[in-house]
Amino acid sequence: MDKHIISSDTTLNALTLQNISKIYRTYSAPSDRLRELLSGGARSYARETRALDDVSFSLAKGGRLGIVGDNGSGKSTLLKVLAGVLTPTSGVVRVDGRISALLELGAGFNPDLPGRENIRQFCLLHGMHGEEIEEALPEIIAFSELRGAIEHPVKTYSSGMAVRLGFACAVYVRPDILIVDEALSVGDAYFQNKCMQKIKSMLDQGTTFIYVTHAADSIRTLCNEGVWMKDGRVRLIGPSSEVGAAYQSEVFRRTVHAGLDSDTQAESATQEAPAAPAANTLTADHARHQAFAERVAPLRTGSGEARILDIALINAAGNDTDHVAFGEACRVRVFYRVDQELPPGCCLTLGITDINGLQILHFNSASQEMVITHAASPVIHVIEFDFVSPLCPGEFGFIAGMGSFKKNPQHFGRLFTDQIVDYVAGGARFRVDFPTTETMQDLWGIAYTPFKVSALTLD
Fold it and tell me: Which domain holds residue 374?
């Protein structure tokens, strides 16, 4: 399959891009533009910036495409070309269906008009007729939850209120193609969840969906295809799981090397990983631990006699991974170092959280009568936790802690925390994949447990 093609059957495509480029021309001074005009095209005084460079791909109707990339990679420019907001410098864009795009907060709204009138104008611009608009108006207002503010000018809205109105309009014009540019990150957690549920219901009804984000987790959750943009070009295209994993690996690699000096980076760039000697393996571990420390630093707490250095999910082959299959046996390694004498009975805990940081699973080495008694030294120690995952498919995170505990006289099975030596959150994430074959299991929610259903008749 061509690396720039998601769907090759043009009759089933919602959109097709062929060799799209977008070039911006800037001038150091207004006089340079005049001098260029007077030269009759013989000389150019402009500096060209290629926001998009020869981008080609297609997306089938009902497809779910996630676009990831760093700032300045061309993601937002690409969406604006797809939405018809920008005209490409060269190339062809073919779109089949009504597009609704949520690109920027308040984009397309008249700030001086009240929310209600902006809804009417938005719907008119998207081809809806008067009766359709009046029918949709109460639903849009209800979804936005703006209540009395719907009669106030949009310029008085907060960013959260603007995104509520924008999203409500975008989904209720009944689009064939819905485009979202990470605008939902501004809303509160409740409204973000409400939007996600609405998007999922639209996807179930066959709406084509395009989503731009910096988070690889998001495209793996919402999308089945992915595009990784870099410097205005397509770096990788394919299944969202593969694109998300590749992009996340690149981000992690850059994070790791950000902690090394330039000489070390230059040396590692010229070496092939399989042939790296043992000394470089230690350097790589140190860099990974440093990157982990930077990620957890904002929420780290504890008395500091020991430090958790890393948390790694290990696959069946013994390698680090960021995903497991549903129902798969899991192994998690927690790396730590003891710097000072530990309090008596010090143990290690591992927690698993949902995407909002709520802890849903907890493992304490104390329950297996394993305590940490190492003396202070630069040696790195590892404790492994093995368990069969009960988690439904989705995105999750790891937290870990070290400390001493006391028995709880009232709630058996739940220890009291006596002293926190170290606690880290936000250092590692992973996902649980959907089954690869048809299943009768009900995989909604956070965790799965087998169950039986019985039917009774009352006399």
Answer: 298-433
